[in-house]
């Protein structure tokens, strides 16, 4: 029998509800108004309708006669992202599956979907975070045709799932479902990949050797298999009840994957106004957001979601911040260790019990809300089961005990008693520390800092031997308003080498480090950012900086009040970055979600 809801989870949830009372009320009132007043296909003019289904071919007559629900697909397909390549044929299959239950499917529109793996360390990475707003806006444009009774969202990777959800929530009077496509097969071991990266950083491996290693890791269609932002997205969609249960980590091409996608299409058709109506704006409520945060903490997920969860919540009228995340982290134990926090990847995680096991053990210990409204008829408890095939039939079963105690443990006997994220704060601002990835003996460091204004300068200093000492590396002017808050993942090998050489090393930055954050202690997403006179802009080389995840400290003994801020670098141009100036100028802080779109909308 499950334990009662944990006191901390209850207290944080009640605070989120109270802090959101007005904004959530305004959102739900808007959704009621949209449901009652919005133009829909039953009231469109003949000319509007003719345009809308002119390309529908064999579904034209069914749409014209309104025989059943018409489902709109918003797709982030491209074959630059291995995770999204399988989506190529999804719409045509979904049309067939929809006809099986008397529904129709139209592709409402597409969204951009960039690969952070391709743009890491490149100029294009400065567009990455703001691509989330562009995706949300593209989703809104796609759904503006008012032809749809339900929304199927095809997206997996980093900014894409948050962007799709943020856009779809403005149509929260309609039901919606996410349809994933699964991870690629396991490649070379993660330990081997990390070894070659560090050898290359030291000049001991060639570019050809590095490329061969990387191709052994990223080798086929499907999501990258490390537990980064993309796979953390899939975990959160399960924790919020926005998938068919257990759909997150079934590989592309499997019969089970096809049947899960077929079931998603059927289920979306069932959730229309004449059926088991479950509008998205009601499914994504305060408890669902808290569940997403709990899943992130329990599995040691991507630090990017310290930005994305507040942004997704705001799109639904919900206020959620890092204080809420940190307090939940004090109560939610770490039950999973997936690379880079462990040795195995998401395929090993899934085989060991995966999301069904995680959700089951959290519910058993009263560490997640069981009473959320999901897209599935059985409620959230249904997500504690794992899918499988019984002949040609799709079934669900109890995942049983953990299949690998080094990968998954029960919440009653976790890897560590608290979650994977900590809030650190002091006279240098507020920041996030991913404690699940860092050995506990490295949770505290006090050392002179070395200040940089881009990650390339850090790597150059490393190659010159200038960082061979105890050091806190500060990389500033990397916040959303400065340059779009790029991930600084290129720092990981060099800092890892310094740590392996025996030095006490840490990173402090107003940029991001992503779900691929490694073993080096890091205070990331520092807010207020350096641009505009934030504390990091007043640090100087040699200032003592203290970072401590135990006490939640991020501070310096330097007298910052007596100093002028460093000169702010001019925004770079090229790669279209100049066209994103409006996003930079309008963005709010990382803790609020670093969104220009939401800030300018007054949300």
Short description:
With 603 residues, the protein is of the alpha/beta class. The protein has helices spanning 7-19, 21-37, 46-53, 60-64, 90-100, 116-119, 128-143, 160-168, 190-201, 207-217, 229-239, 255-270, 280-283, 286-299, 305-315, 322-329, 346-351, 354-364, 455-463, 480-483, 491-500, 581-586, 596-600; strands spanning 70-75, 104-110, 150-154, 176-178, 386-390, 393-397, 421-426, 429-434, 444-452, 471-475, 505-509, 522-527, 544-548, 553-556. It folds into two domains: 7-38 and 69-185 and 220-397, Response regulator (Rossmann fold), CATH 3.40.50; 421-569, 3-Layer(bba) Sandwich (Glucose Oxidase, domain 1).
Description:
By secondary structure, the chain is α/β, with parallel strands linked by helices. It has two domains: about 5-40 and about 70-185 and about 220-395, Rossmann fold (3-Layer(aba) Sandwich); about 420-570, Glucose Oxidase, domain 1 (3-Layer(bba) Sandwich). It has 23 helices and 14 strands. The protein has an eight-stranded mixed β-sheet. A four-stranded parallel β-sheet has the order 2-1-3-4, sandwiched between helices. Strands 5-6 form a two-stranded antiparallel ribbon. Helix 1 (about 5-20) packs across helix 2, helix 5 (about 90-100) packs across helix 12 (about 255-270) and helix 8 packs parallel to helix 15. The chain is globular. The protein starts with 6 loop residues before the first helix and ends with a helix. The mean pLDDT is about 95.
């Amino acid at each position: 029998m499950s334990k009662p809801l944990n006191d901390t989870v209850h207290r944080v949830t009640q605070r989120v509800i109270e802090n959101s009372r007005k904004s959530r009320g305004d959102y739900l009132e808007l959704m009621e108004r949209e449901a009652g007043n919005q133009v829909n296909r039953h009231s469109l003019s003949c000319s509007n309708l003719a345009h809308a289904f002119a390309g529908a071919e064999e579904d034209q007559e069914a749409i014209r006669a309104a025989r059943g629900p018409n489902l709109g697909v918003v797709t982030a397909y491209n074959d630059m992202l291995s995770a999204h390549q399988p989506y190529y044929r999804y719409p045509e299959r979904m049309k067939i599956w929809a006809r099986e239950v008397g529904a129709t499917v139209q592709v409402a529109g597409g969204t951009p979907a960039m690969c952070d793996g391709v743009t890491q360390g490149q100029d294009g990475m400065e567009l990455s975070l703001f691509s989330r707003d562009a995706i949300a806006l593209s989703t809104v444009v796609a759904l503006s045709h008012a032809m749809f009774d339900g929304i199927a969202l095809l997206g997996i990777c980093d900014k894409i799932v948050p962007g799709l959800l943020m856009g779809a929530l403005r149509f929260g009077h309609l039901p919606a479902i996410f349809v994933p496509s699964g991870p690629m097969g396991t490649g070379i071991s993660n330990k081997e990949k990390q070894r070659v990266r560090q050898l290359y950083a030291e000049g001991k491996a060639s570019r050809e050797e590095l490329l061969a290693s990387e191709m052994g890791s990223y080798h086929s269609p499907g999501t990258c298999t490390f537990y980064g932002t993309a796979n953390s997205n899939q975990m959160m969609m399960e924790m919020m009840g926005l998938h068919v249960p257990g759909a997150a980590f079934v590989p592309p091409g499997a019969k089970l994957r096809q049947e899960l996608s077929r079931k998603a299409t059927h289920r979306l058709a069932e959730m229309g106004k004449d059926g088991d109506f479950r509008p998205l704006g009601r499914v994504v409520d305060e408890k669902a957001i808290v569940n997403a945060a709990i899943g992130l903490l329990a599995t040691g997920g991507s630090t990017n979601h310290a930005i994305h969860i507040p942004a997704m919540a705001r799109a639904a009228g919900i206020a959620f911040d890092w204080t809420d995340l940190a307090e939940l982290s004090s109560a939610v134990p770490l039950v999973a260790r997936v690379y880079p926090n462990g040795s195995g990847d998401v395929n090993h995680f899934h085989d060991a019990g995966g999301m069904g096991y995680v959700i089951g053990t959290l519910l058993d210990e009263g560490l997640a809300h069981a009473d959320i409204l999901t897209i599935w008829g059985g409620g959230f408890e249904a997500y504690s089961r794992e899918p499988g095939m019984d002949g040609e039939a799709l079934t669900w079963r109890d995942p049983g005990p953990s299949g690998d105690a080094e990968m998954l443990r029960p919440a009653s006997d976790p890897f560590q008693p608290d979650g994977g994220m900590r809030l650190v704060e002091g006279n240098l601002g507020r920041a996030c520390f991913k404690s699940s990835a860092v050995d506990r003996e490295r949770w505290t460091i006090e050392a002179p800092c070395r200040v940089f204004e881009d990650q390339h300068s850090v790597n150059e200093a490393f190659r010159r031997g200038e960082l061979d000492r105890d050091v806190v590396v500060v990389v500033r002017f990397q916040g959303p308003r400065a340059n779009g808050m790029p991930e600084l993942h290129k720092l990981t090998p060099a800092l890892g080498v310094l740590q392996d050489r025996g030095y006490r090393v840490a990173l402090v930055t107003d940029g991001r480090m992503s779900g691929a954050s490694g073993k080096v202690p890091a205070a990331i997403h520092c807010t207020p950012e350096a641009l505009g006179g934030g504390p990091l802009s007043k640090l100087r080389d040699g200032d003592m900086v203290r970072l401590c995840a135990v006490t939640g400290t991020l501070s310096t003994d330097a007298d910052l009040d007596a100093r002028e801020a460093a000169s702010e670098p001019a925004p770079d141009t090229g790669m279209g970055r100049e066209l994103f100036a409006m996003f930079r100028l309008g963005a709010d802080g990382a803790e609020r979600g670093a969104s220009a779109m939401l800030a300018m909308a007054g949300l």
